[in-house]
Amino acid sequence: MKNNKIVIYIGLLAVGLLLGWLIFGDSSKKLAEHNHNEVSETNQMWTCSMHPQIMQPEPGDCPICGMDLIPAESSADGLLADQFKLTENAMALANIQTTVVGKGNVDDNTLKLSGKIAENEEANAVQVSYFSGRIERLNVSFTGEEVRKGQLLATIYSPELYAAQQELITASSLKESQPALYKAVRNKLKLWKLSENQINQIEETGKVKENFPVYATVSGTVTEKLVEQGDYIKQGQPLLKIANLNTVWANFDVYENQIDLFKKGQEVLVTTNAYANKEFKGKVDFIEPILNTKTRTVTLRVVLNNKNDVFKPGMFVTANIERVSSSNDEVLTIPASAVLWTGERSVVYLKTNPDQTIFEMREVVLGNQIGNEYEVLEGLFIGNEIVTNGTFTVDAAAQLQGKKSMMNKAGGKVMTGHEGHTMDMMTEKVDFNSTVEKSFQPIIDAYINLKDALIQSDISLASSKSEAFRKALEEMPVSQREQTHNYWAILHKTSKGINENVTLEHQRKQFQTISDKLIEMVKNFDKVNDKLYVQFCPMADNNNGAYWLSKEEQVLNPYFGDAMLKCGEVKQTIK
After folding, report:
1. Of 119, 202, 205, 228, which alpha carbon lies 20 to 30 A from 245's?
2. How many angstroms separate the CA atoms of 140 and 123, rounded?
3. Has this prediction a pTM greater than 0.70?
4. Is there a single domain that holds both residue 469 and residue 558?
5. Average pLDDT, the chain
6. 3-state SS assignment for residue 417
7. From the centroid of its chain, how far is CA 356?
8. Three-state SS for 152?
9. Residues 474 and 532 in one domain
10. In the chain, how many domains are there?
């Protein structure tokens, strides 16, 4: 009996232990999980998809843009040194899109060239005097006047011609006895461009004319007056330059790597800002056989009909030319929106894993622009997937994570605030020619107009002012461009990135590069026409800070516009 009781007690104890484990063991597990989750939640950081520099320990709103914060990544294990990862939420909110690169015929096969209208040199003429003397009357009043062939241009008193007329009158009385002398005197007058009627009139009347007329030998427009009434002139001296503007030349610069894309006889559509809705047809008439070693370009010439006086010499024009390839090979192209320009490098962002949002920067070598796409010569292969929308957002994430980026070629920790700028009043001294400084004054004015457009946050206006800035650069004589120590080339190339096909963020990034280079130049000028203020905003460029030039001391921020119009301060005054 006693043994039975012991067995029963042992059984009850076992059942009790089992029930205790089932009840309290599960609670302990839940408590452990709760504690683990609590720790995880405590360590979770929250960031903004548009401003990844924002890091907060709890959810909420972004203090910059007001967007909801999203969970930040806890690690980037398994990534290579130059790779970084974005969250799916960040991809969606920033509208980051990618495209697979592949060979194919380009839909828009048109190349665009910029050029200028010039006089048709084949139709130009110089009106000269065929005898020496004094201009008694000049019948051409101003440059630009139209003249017709045979029109009286000037009346000249010539002592030589006066004496030659007397010789003719004397020789005419001896023409029977000395015919050779008579013939020689007449030929002498013909060499001075006197007509048979004029010579016969002198001979018949026996009167010497004091003043002789000069008639136009061609029809056209007077482009230059080389003499004034009362001037003494020599035989063969030019009096006027006359251009026939019924046809004109449109001269375009073609870069060295584009030469094989053009041939004589190609059809060209020419447009100009003076007639925005019109296109004018022409054909390639001449491609210069000698390369300009300073600009690395050749001149492509198009002859245009100008009977309606549409084109004026000096007018800027744009040519759209169908691309001609020397082979039937297809080209590897990428959208222009995928490319970021630093002024010296072209970079894209490659999605390294098709199943994950992992990216890395890739430098590329570009060829010709074909429509809204660029040929890729080096850096990408068929099948690569690249970012084509939201490229600047991806670049900002790369900078903040210390990876290779557009402005951080070597990678490493990115400075924030004022730390990121070494430009602050530490520009290396460069000597510029006084003619270069003078030529840059209208370029500075065009830059100020571009800055004002970005203050208004107007993409279309910024594109237009960027084009005007680029045209102001192109007005600079070629002989002076190489004296700018490569600044001209960087400014010209970077300004092309400010166009209507890109975002305002992209335009402002290119403007930052232009501003940095222009400030470096202006600080070394001996003279500027207007007082200039170097202004700085510490919050621009993802809190790295950015500079710009202004003619007014009041701060109006081109990097934020109305969003933070007064953000910034004057760092330096250039007088």
Report:
1. 228
2. 20
3. no
4. yes
5. 80
6. helix
7. 36
8. strand
9. yes
10. 5
